[in-house]
Input
Amino acid sequence: MAATITPLANVDAAWLKMEDPTNLMMVTGVLMFPRPVDMDYFRALIESRLLQFDRFRQRVVRPSLPLAPHYWEFDPHFNVNAHLHRIGLPHPHDKSALQQLVSELMSTGLDFSKPLWHMHVVDGYGEGGAVIVRLHHALADGMALVGVLLALTDMNPGAPRPTPNGHLAAAEPDALAPPSPLRGSWEALQLRAAEMAGRGVGVGRRALIEGLETYLNNDRPRQLAEMTTDYAHAAGKLVLRAADNQTIFKGELGIAKRAVWSRPLPLSEVKAMRQALGVTVNDLMIAAVAGGLRRYLEGRGEEAVDFRAAVPVNLRGPHEMGGLGNKFGLVFLDLPVATVDMPRRLALVRYRMEALKNSHEAPVALDILGAIGFSAQMVQDAVVRMIGSKATAVMTNVPGPPIPLYLAGQPIERMMFWVPQSGRLGLGLSVLSYAGNIYLGIASDAGLVPDPDGILLGFYAEYDELLGMV
Output
């Protein structure tokens, strides 16, 4: 019987075509735990939950004909053990060693002869452990992939343990109260994702980009896309926008990348600043990040100038949560890097974020990605260069679960994710909230920014300045 094949959607194919050894199109994540991860338990979760999605058992086939579409087919030799590896963290077994390991894996491409995902279970992270996840963007966008990973989690430590054949074992007696027939299922994940990542659903029926947070209301972007005049204006604005300012953050990319993340910042503390200053949590984070970037530039004898961040905007509706594939656009935020005065910088961030709320560019960018998916390589390269010239960084903000989640029987203490820097950009900035804390993650090209910890130090100084204002 002929093998089942599925052509890649144009937008998914675009991410495949943008793959380059110096700019891998992977979503990379790290989860940290207080104890070593039970490998058998973790493998059983992968088999019983992740492999319910066909994409994680399918590989991409590149057609022999030049204009034929790429397609998915089930890997006839699929073996989950080819995608799960257990490794020990080198000395000194601390955060710096884990950041180095994440950096090395972030710099290493996936095997395209197999399904496009890989996970490393890491032993020796202090007294605990970690899981490093790499997922190709052709599978789905960052929001969908984070949702898939959350489907592996439970909301309490006594959830039923999957057996080797993928079925759930009986729960511990104390885990049965309160009863939850959806616990551990994909339906439960959808509910959690809608509650945690979609806090803006139904608020004003508009495409909220409340300081970069990903909301799920899908009506407004569709309305904008259907308004021909506005759509054409947005397309022209995107194409004709001047190239971004040149800084040391832009340049020729190399293979090696660097990944770091901040200490946990209490979300209650940030919300107290928000209330005192009359801004959003995201306004505060962006202002502190922009100041940290300025300090980094000045510390290296460079002139501090404003530059743009490309911001992904989710275009999924609430009913579309749980699906794979890519469905997001981009808007461009001018970061007030050159502004030293914190109140002035905070006001600029707030003003510019307000201006983005009615941006028409997100659906335009989604259509451009779709066009890349069926274009010839030469055309695709030109479009990618054009988009990449408009920005210096990719900046994301994912409102994660507000409560601790459990994986393989123990709590996830901390987590961080990075999306790829499309357009061959060399700097990624990720803001993630989880379990009462907020984190900043930085991914950089090692040739351009070999020491992203320097940006973090500047960010901490700016954050302390914000605290001083209240």
